[in-house]
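Appendix C reproduces, verbatim, an entry submitted by the partner laboratory led by Prof. M.T., so that reviewers can inspect both the input and the predicted structure.
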Amino acid sequence: MSEVERYRALVAKVQAAVEASAENRTRVLEAIAWPRSVEERFFAQEAQALPEVSYEVGPDALTGQVEALMAIAAEIDGDDPVALWAKANVQSMIDGCRLVQSMGTTEFYRLSREIYGGARTRFHGTGERNIDLAEHLLERLRVHGWDEAKDAEPERLTDEELALELRTRLSKRFPSMKVEVTLDDDLTAKVIAGASRVRVRRGASFLPWEADGLWYHEVSTHVLTAQNGAMQPEAPFLRAGGPRTTRTQEGLAVFAELYHHTLATPRMERLALRVKLVEMAEGGADFLDLYRYLLARGHEPREAYLDAQRICRGGRVEGGAPFTKDAAYLAGLLDVQAFLSVVVRGGFRDELELLMCGRIDLDDLHALVLLRRAGILRRPRFIPTWLRRWSTLVPEFAFGSFLADLPLDPLREHYRELIALGASHAAPDAAT
């Protein structure tokens, strides 16, 4: 068997695993989602009692599916990049099943932390943890001193206005992506994107920067990679990479927000606070502790509820066993930023485009390059704006690569008095 034939056989194994489990597949985020009725009951009780949540899938529901997937995984031989990638894809399907099987238990938290990481998970080869990055950002984003310059208060978009905005942008996109944008009465998040549909929570409102960010995060990243994956003739399973790809996919989505200057201070602060919430829940904080913590920071009650439920869904509202996916957003952003800083070069454009060939993990790229050169993968049809602008992307990272190695302590000392002066500035006395 030639190398290309072996690669093709490995890809076929993964596709067979997907097809074998298709009939009984249960998506993790759908399985752990809380009904809107839980939210309404919580506020009807004046936000004084822990939410009452039950899950429909029992611990034995997916046992047969797990066993079938494990049998397929055992048939995948080899330790080369493509074989390891194939095994990882099947294992991710198994992990998703096990998460669903363990909903409402401490085992759910153990698996979640193993797959997504937790607040204290360390970055690759460093001593820094997710919570360290979150706390660093919260401190740097905190207002120091007082400024006369202020932004005008923006008008919020209604649910229908956001839906129209997304539809309008989609109509102008080339090549066009077929995506339905709908309003959903029962949605427990403000916006959720699938491969071909974006659902907007009815009754929600959005600041202008939220609308821009949602376009780049949900449509131009999550929908885009899912549709590219579905278009792969021999590997359509790339439309859904499973839990193992979450960190990279969310990292790419947040990077798109950052690159296009739509990652506003409140959004970045919220991403950092979610890591803090994961840390609190890992330490035993219950849903009410998380909810009240956010209220104390000035969050609106509904917004505080939605963020607290993100952490507790699937786990235990009593604390100690959270869903740790929200610790992966900033970690993923750091991964993607660091990866691009190292890999972006004038001659690596084809390889970097494979980031968008489906819902993948950064460590999959070695295997994907081999599959592309073997003619098994096609070039992704849809490329996000930031990657299409290659002639502006390369200079940014070329300059940044020098700055990354520049010692900044002398500069901090040089500007120390200016920083102290700005931090000490106070608003003029209203009486004068």
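The two ends are 86 Å apart (CA to CA). Additional entries are available on request from the coordinating office.
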